[in-house]
Description:
Number of strands: 9
Shape: elongated
CATH architecture of the largest domain: Roll
Number of helices: 5
Distance between the termini: 62 Å
Radius of gyration: 28 Å
Mean pLDDT: 82
Structural class: alpha+beta
Strand content: 25-35%
Largest sheet: 7 strands, mixed
Amino acid sequence: MLKNSFTKQIPVLSLTLVIAACSSTGPAPTGAASTQTPDGKSIFSDVAELDFNPPKEDYRIGANDLIDIKVFQAPELSQSSRVDPQGNISLPLVGTIKAAGLTPSSLEQNIAKLLSAKYLQDPQVTVFMKEFTTQRVTVEGEVQKSGVFPIQGEMTLLQAVALAGGMNQLADPSKTVLFRKQGNALKAYNINLNFVRDGKMRDPYIRNDDRIIVHRSDTRFWLRETGSLLNPLRALIP
């Protein structure tokens, strides 16, 4: 009789253990960080949207930009030139030509046309942007020297952080956030700089007006701060 009673209790005990196990996988503690907004959307955009190849040619040369001009097999015609306040550059043989307002490829074509008119047959001209004085990136947070820096050539995220002196001892590389304007929207991208350094993720190129914030390793509110920057009204909601 005792044996039968014990046998009947085994399913009940098993069911109790299953229920207890399921309850242990319930909601996360209220103090846990969430990367989602109240409507269930992530505050971070997909990093696949970033530029992992040099930016396309939508940039137009401006005054004080520094450009590097190479003419194939003509080193005497190759040089670096800074655009003057009137938007012009001066080149050997060609003289003074307009550069401001043109894309690098348009300037290449203009220089090649002028050289082919009198001096060279089918010249191959390459224009490379060495310094964008009209484009800026902001780097702040746990870096050695926060500030606004000119974008020099084709600059990546790691290079931008290096301009700020690199991260300090309080920084958490996994809490690096890149803010970027896309039309009328502001987007945030969470990038682990350790992954970039280790080759697990490609180093994204930055754009004009990008903002980079490196957060502290011991901060509990970096996600809330990110959300408030994306939507200032959210900070007013308790």
